[in-house]
Amino acid sequence: MTAPHPLPQKAYTVQPVPPNYLSLSTPSTTDDATQEKEKVLWIGCSDSLVSETDSLTNVNRSEIFVHRNLGNRVSVGDVSSGSALEWCVEGLKVQHIIVCGHYDCHLLSESKSDSNNWYHDFIQLHQLSDAQEPASQDQKARNRHFEELYVLAEVEWLKKQDQVQRAVKEWGCQVHAFVYDRERGECVRLVEKEG
Fold first, then answer.
1. CATH number of residue 152's parent domain
2. Cα–Cα distance for residue pair 157/25, rounded to 1 Å
């Protein structure tokens, strides 16, 4: 069991994802041009029930490496996520890493009282989040806010990893926080405010 990621302390805004949001560079050598490679690592939740990657209308499906697990989790000790991250960053040299949660995630909304060991991090994050939330907010709003904070915490953890920092420095890889909104049928992006 690992210590939970701390909740992000920065303020953030929720913004729509424009249709042409991701810019993908074209291959620079003939060898790259003949070999199609994924340029986006998409880390999503296996409970999302939809193909939220369709929200990236300017990106071909063949350019997206999709990794799904319960709760779009990326953290120390998760071998599956770790190997996907290593392959996409070190092997494919992806240009974008997207962590995409979704509103109404059953795992995140129901994890407050579950006693399974691997839920422990979710329970601790819920407790931290609940302590910050006004008691007057309805449960749906609290859950949506927690889902956003959870995605931001996962993104912050990713940005601290040596291989991701190297990718950002060496070839300009970008890390994004998205949440899929089933009611609207689209992704929103979480943008931290400066300062």
1. 3.40.1050.10
2. 26
